[in-house]
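Shipment paperwork, digital attachment
Item: protein structure file
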Amino acid sequence: MANSINISQIKLNDKPFLKFDFPEYLDLKIAEEAISNWKTQLSDFESNNKVDLIFNCMDMSGFDTEARKIWQNTLKELKPQTGQIWVVCENLFILGAAKTMGILSGYQIKVTRSIEKVGDS
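Attachment content:
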């Protein structure tokens, strides 16, 4: 079982994304490490372009409240650099939490059940 969030730069339909592969359970330590990595990777993108994100939560079953809070605060902090956010997941609890977090941080989060559907309207 993974105990970190893998963050990678990918292209779908010639469009760049930062893709986050979440572990089964997100705790505060994993979230803090991933946020540090996330901020570092943002520097690889052109500063005048917003970066679209994919949160791959297919393996995720839960999270700590503190992890959710710092993730939500980071979304607010990085809003000027963030474009669309896609959540890939089949777990209704995680999807509901993602939608709520989007509302609280000012994003209209899009959801899908497969990476291949990211970018479809």
